[in-house]
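name: query_chain
kind: protein
chains: 1
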Amino acid sequence: MYPETASLDFSQEERDRAARYHRPRYLARGAGVGLAAAVYAALAWSPVGRFLWGLVDGWGWAGSAAAWAAIVVVVAAFVQLPLSYWRDLKRERAWGFSRQSVRGWLGDQGKGLALGVLLVAGFWAGAVGLARAFPRWWPAAAGLAFAAVTLVVSFLAPVVLEPIFNRFRPLEDERLAAELRALGEDAGVPVRHVLVADASRRTNKVNAYVSGLAGTRRVVLYDTLLAATEAPEVKLIVAHELGHRRERHVLKGTLVAMAGAIAGVLVLWAVLGSRIASARELPQALLLFLALELAGLAPGAALSRRWERQADRFSLELTGDLGAFERAHVDLARKNLSDLVPPRLAYLLLFSHPSPPERLALGRAWARAGATGS
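structure:
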């Protein structure tokens, strides 16, 4: 349920400060979507788009598809670069979060851009090739192929993609590592890998997450979290991540993404049909995918919040430590400057986690239910 009032755990000054930090971020996110849509539209239908397409037209279907994908991705990234710089570096520095230099930030942008070019070029060349090979049945082949790629990427991301941006090391505190392994045994999801990411190279924010499937599953803690958080709260946070593993949220999220890939191909087929065999239609395809992404924001955020509540309850049931739960979520909210009373629209569309007051209310409701035996 959407929180109507903020918890008394946070002062009015904290609520106001969080609002001042987040409100421009919401506007910047909307502006980014608008810029992306404008770039795709310009590349699809303007003289600039026709000129740029002419540079790669005639390179053969595979060469034209891959090169056109590179042009579209690079142009979109270049147009959005000033906004990204303001939002992700300059403003984060002003609020005391970013620890990156301009050079380091640009390096990350370059890595992300290169990865985006590879993924989009591969996707588009594959779609064009399938449309040429199977003019009538390409949606079936493409849907299955892209769903399979989504599964593979989810499996390989922890060992292939994540190390591009961060370095990981085993948790060095042997006592804490042993306690976390015991926690995993109690949870029924033994922990093979608890890794520490060198997030402090970029940010002062704290976080933890789970990723990967089967043999690549791991729990990752930011080094900033370990530096700023006591052992009981770390155990509580890891218990939350174990809840995600116990409920198989990564697998379920992957299955949802696979279904989304199939749905995206079907929409592409319904709107563009066999025209994608020319490779020129990529900007139109990206506009369609952007529209689908926007349409999926609210249900995706609601599903994520549901999973987060499940993991929160699991962390309480596993540790039985309401005090650590309260301290952890109050500290996380303060250190990350979480929005405590978000605008309703932002909450519905963008909040993948319940707000901090919601999470604290959930924990206390759990404790009251336990005290009354209900």
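note: Residues 282-319 form the longest helix (38 residues).
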